[in-house]
Amino acid sequence: MGELSAANRPAVAVEDDLRSVMRNFATGVCVVSTFSDAGSSRRHNALTVNSLMSLSLDPPLVSLSIRRDSTFLDDLMESRVWSFSILDGGGEDLARIFARPAEDRVKALRSLPTELGPQTGALLLDSAAWMECRYRDHLTVGDHLLIVGEVVGAGVRDKGSSLVFLGGEFHRMSRRAI
After folding, report:
1. Per-residue pLDDT tens for 97-107?
2. Stretch 160-174: mean pLDDT, rounded?
3. What whole-number distance in Å separates Cα of residue 119 and Cα of residue 134?
4. Are 55 and 117 in contact (CB under 8 A)?
5. Planar angle of CA 157, 100, 45, nearest 5 degrees
6. SS3 for 41-84, per residue?
7. Which three-class secondary structure state does DSSP give residue 8?
8. Is the dihedral of CA 150, 156, 161, 163 positive or negative?
9. Model confidence band, residue 45 (pLDDT cutoffs 50, 70, 90)
10. I want to staple 128 with a disulfide (CB 3.0 to 4.6 A). Which of 1, 9, 90, 159 is the partner?
11. Percent share of the chain, pLDDT over 90
12. What is the rounded CA–CA span in Å between residue 90 and residue 177?
């Protein structure tokens, strides 16, 4: 297999261009949900992510990457449980809502239809598929924490299309196009 000559290799300033480079990598979009308990009350929290990755089928493990300075991460590490709502093609509004500041996200959870995950108590949204996870391990990676969870519940509500993030924009992808 041939190599690109130095003259044909594009110069990449890693710190400046990594985001631009990664915009060329299509990812699915999901909302991750967890909670914190303060005395007798539970406060739910949710966040839009595209860092979900399947790690193992036996045991069933997935990973998630969250900024270390995130209040959502604090809640997740306290509860040690979370759920993923994998968004269908009509989920762009949900993705945008849960990409907002924490106060807006918590407020939205009070007004949107949700259900408690039967295994974890973390909220599930109406979505194409869902998973519930329990903490297994974590690794500090730069400004993020890579969290490994064991899948303890999952289901599919096939909606016919998926929400994909590519080129800094959301796209609806029909499963028939695959």
Report:
1. 999 999 999 99
2. 91
3. 9
4. no
5. 60
6. EEEEEEEEECCCEEEEECCEEEEEEEECCCHHHHHHHHHCEEEE
7. coil
8. negative
9. very high
10. 159
11. 76
12. 16
Distance of CA 172 to the CA centre of its chain: 17
Out of 14-28, 116-130, 135-149, 163-177, which region has the weakest mean confidence (pLDDT)? 14-28
Residue-level pLDDT at 39: 80
Residue with tokens 């690109």: 4
How are strands ordered across the β-sheet holding 169-174? 27-28, 161-166, 169-174
Residue type, 93: D
Q: Taking CA 165 as the corner, what is the angle to CA 161 and CA 168, rounded to the nearest 5 degrees? A: 145
Q: Are 102 and 71 in contact (CB under 8 A)?
A: yes
* Tokens of residue 12, six digits: 């990449």
Give the amino acid at 136: R
125 strand-pairing partners: 114
* Peptide bond just before 60 cis, omega within 30 deg: no
Residue 177 has pLDDT above 70, yes or no: no
Q: Which amino acid makes up residue 2? A: G
